[in-house]
Amino acid sequence: MKLVEHELVDRYIYYLQRYIPYDKQKDARDDFLEILKDRLPEIYTEDDIKKELNKIGNPYEFATTYTEGSKFLLSGKNYEIFVAFLKMLSVSALIGIILFILNYFKRFVSANLFDLLKTILISIFVLSLLPSWICEKIKTTKILKALTEEWDIDNLYETKDFKIEKYEIVLLVLNFSMYFMLQAYIITARINISIVTYTFIMVLFFLNVLSANLKLSENTIVSKVMHFEYFVDIFTLISFIIMTNYFIPRVFIIKIIMLCSVINIILNSYNISKSKNILLSRKKRKKNKFKRKNKKTE
Length: 298
Prior knowledge:
The chain is mostly helical. It has two domains: about 5-65; about 75-275, no CATH class. The protein is built from twelve helices and no strands. The chain has helices spanning about 5-15, 20-40, 45-55, 60-65, 75-105, 105-110, 115-150, 165-185, 195-220, 225-245, 250-275, 275-295. Helix 7 (about 115-150) packs across helix 9. The longest helix is centred in the middle third of the chain and has 36 residues, at about 115-150.
C-alpha cells in the first residue's frame, strides 16, 4: 500500500487541505508526504505512521504555512469561495432579470430601473460577502479550538472531501436565479406585498446561499452542515407553502424554488446513504475519544 493510501495519512491530508486555498492544496499535500516519508523507516507499520503524525502535529497548524493573510475580511479558501459566489450570483441575477423581462416585460418597462438594478447589485454583494464572512468565523473558531486541545491523530474523524458536481452548480444557479426573479417580481408588484414578506423571502435567499457556502467552506457532507442544509430546504418549503396561501401569489417562480429544495433534499439523502461507512467510523472514533478522556480523568 502506498503511503498516501493509508487511512491515517488520508485523514491527515483531508484536514490539512480543508481550509487552505485550492491552488496550494497539492503543494501542501506533497510537502507533508515528503516530510512523513523521510521520518518513517523503510519498512513501517501503522503504529510508526501514527507516532510520526502525532509528532508532526495538528494539520491546521501545518496548514498555516500555506494560508495567505486576510483579504477583505476573509482568508485562504473562503476568499476564493467569496469570489466564486460573487460570480455565480452575478450570473444568476442576470439570468433572473432576463427571465423576468421575458415574462413580465410591461412591468419591467414601467418600473424604476435604477432602483431595481441598484437593489439587485446590493443583494449580490451582501449575499456573496456575508455568508463567506460567517464561514470564515466558523473556520477560525474550529481551528482555534483544535489548536488548544491536546493533539492526537485519533481526533480527526473524516476522510472524504466534498466534490461539487456540475449538476449541483446548475441547480444552485437555477435556484438563485429564481430568487432574483422573485425579488424583481416583488419590487415591481402592482399588488400590495408587504415589506415583511419581501424581507422574509430575502432571508430565505440568504439562508440558501449560506447553506451552499458552508458546504464548500467546510468541505464535507457528513457534518452539521448537512443538518443545516436539510433545515434550510424544509424551512424554505414550509415558508413558501404558508406565504402562497396568505401573503404572495402562487407564481411559477416560487414553484421552481420549491422544486429545487425538494431535489436538494433527495440529493443530500442520497449522499448520506453513500456515506454510511464514514458516519459509522466517525461515531466510533468519537466514542473511543470519549473513553480515552474518561480514563484520563479517573
